[in-house]
Amino acid sequence: MTNASEVLSSIQSAFPGAVLDSRVESDSRLWATIDSKKILDVCKYMTAKLNFDHYSGSAGVDWIARKEMEVVEIMASHGAHQVVAMLKVKTPRDNPSVKSMTGLYWNAGWYEREIWEMLGINFEGHPELYPLLLSDPLVGAWPWRKDYKGYPDLTTGERAVAITTSEGYTEYTFPPTPAEIEAGTVVTEHPKYPTFREREEREIKSDSEMIMHLGPQHAMVPGPFLLDILVEGERVKKAFLDVGYIHKGIEKIMENRTWLQGITYTDRMCYVASLSNNECYCGAVEKILGLEVPERAQYIRVILEELSRIQSHLIGTGEFLTLIAGVGFAPWQYMIMDREKVISLIESVTGARLTHTFVRFGGVRNDLPEGFADQCRKVLPYMKSRTEEFIELFAQDPIYHARMENIGSISAETAKRMGCAGRVLRAAGVAYDMRREDPILVYPELDFDIVTGTRGDSADRIDCTLREILQSIRIIEQCLDKIPSGPIRTEVKIPKKIPAGEAYYRVEDPRGEMGMYVISDGGDKPYRVKVRGPFYATFQTLTPLLEGVYIADAVAIAGSMDGCPSESDR
Amino acid sequence: MGISDVIPVPVAIDEEIEKWTIFGQPVAEVWFTTTEKIHQIIEMGPIKNIFNWGRKNSVYFLMQPMGCCGVEMFVFGAAPYDSDRFGCIPRNTPRQTDVMIISGYLTRKYLPVFKNLWEQMPEPKWCIAIGECAISGGPFYDSYNIVQNTGDHFPIDVFIPGCPPRPEQFLEGLINLQEKIKQRKDRRDY
């Protein structure tokens, strides 16, 4: 078993002088500042020798007082050990530039594009440094920098000016207001890059090829995204993904709210899994504060998060089954009806259907209501029988099998390399679950299995999801038996100003591994909150998966990932 | 043009018919005239009420989930709350819909697409804004990427507050819209 200090000493002996600063927080967390010239070699060494095969994302931080910017690479392992290494690379603020990780890790592409468009940090050697989330007029404003003044921005309807393009489309632009010109936030120098439309049109090589738009409006995906496929006949030759249609800038907004107000924004990040988002943020803050959560509160959190997982899986599967039309409009109605039972259980505790703000620093907001356990014991066996019925139903249906089996298959090796999360990874046969990998709350005391598939295709993903519901029911039943009485919140008074520090906290979201990187500078507001969303990680793999499939299968593949674009856009 | 120009009838009958009126207009001007005339008659008369009665009972809405309210919209359209009871059925394409529900945050990147969707919907059409984000920006009021006043872009008839509103509130908003259509008080004045 490797632990953080062993990893640190191994790096230090292999690259003397490369580690400028380091801190071993616990056995599973390592913080180190690496020399920017040696970062690629260090990462290569860690992947090859120390089993850090999971590039889990990167975060950009603007340290305006120190006149430098920081890129934090988050490295972990797919089950070989439990160390998460946070490697920081510093770069001057005037002309920020670091080396790109895209040569080593396939999935670094999106993370670096996001940091570039938001903070203006250049990545040397990135093959396609184009904006990901922002619309073209905003690129160059670098909105996540601390000195961005276009905030609040009064985007009123009167400002929108309609322009008819040469192709006959109507487009709208926002000319700057006098206040914005005075504040100096008008983007004068736009970086030059080919737009999304130009990028996809230059891939058209012959007259028999054309581009088909799927989206941005989708009827059954809880958020818009644009999927363009280049088709020749019935085959998809290449796919292009444009996201950011519901990019709200949550990470920036949270920097301008108090610590407690921040919880409400985590709700709205992924609204079908708000409890695990709450947990992730609160857990990170508790880590900075060094708080212990009372045992009863831990059990309440686990119960609610598992209930939330059940309802998320039900709505995700239901949506998907309507997409592959002809198979599943009836299951959709049944699943939504069953989901209402779970939602009313959650509502009886939290008082809200979707946006709960229930988890608080050092505990939960309120105790379970009277009779909750009895109500749960009534609903859970029903849910169990229904889920078993669904599994059986899909196992028997020949149309479902024809449409789903061996469609969008992904091998374990590829899934690991591309940094997939959640069901896509587990359906490929990798038992990677944060509840086991980075145990939080009372999960180590509970008995449950990690559901894995064998083929990694669309059918496996849905099967895994449904079987996960059964495991969640198992966890809740154990919790109801074991839950002790006692306080539901820590007796320590939570200060308004959180002491300076940083933490990275991981939970198992219904869609996979979710991490939040929270930095405090000792103020009453977070200095930086970085969200490592699970669907953001999985979403990238959609385009390579679609190459070479039939057009009809594109929907079966995209839908089986259980997308929540709101969480990937933030 | 009188009736005797078309059918050979005695002039006396023609003169008699010219005295008849319908909704205050001479019948002779109404019969055997252009479609524009007929539309005029519909505009002023109680026939319009019959049209709007039909319209109010078949308000199909566009499935266009954009945020938390979008998830509630799924539930609103599905079995537990069953919007179908009120003639309100979810449709997947704008070409088949009458009502656009702005179900969440409208970003700068999405606004042009959203306007296109609105323009693709056939007349008559109505718009409902659901949730705080669609009404005023809500919790994201000071974001750099959110369009705050959707009312400036779309003729919104009903605002349903909440973050997100419950499906019951969706139903109430829908009934309010139907009442507005029935009383001919909607923004686009059908």
CATH fold group of the largest domain in chain B: Rossmann fold
User: Any idea of the CATH topology of the largest domain in chain A?
Assistant: Cytochrome-c3 Hydrogenase, chain B
Beta-strand content bin of chain A: 15-25%
Distance between the first and last residues' Cα of chain A: 36 Å
Query: Please, what is the CATH homologous superfamily of the largest domain in chain A?
Result: Cytochrome-c3 Hydrogenase, chain B
Q: What is the number of strand segments of chain A? A: 17
Distance between the termini of chain B: 30 Å
Rg of chain A, rounded, reads 24 Å
As an assembly, this protein is heterodimer
Helix content of chain B: 25-40%
Shape of chain A: globular
Structural class of chain A: alpha+beta
Q: Helicity of chain A, in percent?
A: 25-40%
Put simply, the count of helices of chain B is: 8
Strand order of the largest sheet of chain B: 5-6-7
Broad CATH class of the largest domain in chain B:
Alpha Beta
General shape of chain B: elongated
- β-strand amount of chain B: 5-15%
Describe what this molecule looks like in 3D.
The complex is a heterodimer of chains A (570) and B (190). Chain A is α+β, with helices and mostly antiparallel strands and 570 residues long. Chain A folds into two domains: 1-144, Beta Polymerase, domain 2, CATH 3.30.460; 250-562, Cytochrome-c3 Hydrogenase, chain B (Orthogonal Bundle), CATH 1.10.645. Chain A is 39% helix and 18% strand. Chain A has 20 helices and 17 strands. Chain A has helices spanning 4-14, 39-49, 108-119, 178-183, 196-201, 250-255, 262-267, 274-289, 295-323, 329-350, 372-396, 398-404, 412-417, 422-427, 434-437, 458-482, 534-539, 542-546, 551-560, 565-569, and strands at residues 19-26, 29-34, 54-63, 68-76, 84-92, 97-99, 122-124, 161-164, 170-173, 209-214, 226-232, 235-242, 359-360, 363-364, 501-509, 512-520, 528-532. In chain A, strands 1-2-5-4-3 form a five-stranded mixed beta sheet, with helices on one face. In chain A, strands 10-11-12 form a three-stranded antiparallel beta sheet. The longest helix of chain A is centred in the middle third of the chain and has 29 residues, at 295-323. The model of chain A is unreliable at 152-158 (pLDDT under 50). Chain B has eight helices and seven strands. In chain B, helix 4 (47-56) packs antiparallel against helix 8. Chain B has 190 residues and is α/β, with parallel strands linked by helices. In chain B, strand 6 (126-130), helix 7 and strand 7 (156-160) form a beta-alpha-beta unit. In chain B, the strands form three sheets. Chain B has a three-stranded parallel beta sheet. In chain B, strands 1-2 form a two-stranded antiparallel ribbon. Chain B has a two-stranded parallel sheet with strand order 3-4. Chain B has two domains: 3-45, no CATH class; 59-182, Rossmann fold (3-Layer(aba) Sandwich), CATH 3.40.50.12280. The model of chain B has no long low-confidence stretch (mean pLDDT 80). Classes of the chains: A alpha+beta (570), B alpha/beta (190). At the A-B interface, strand 9, helix 6 and helix 10 of A face helix 5 and helix 6 of B.
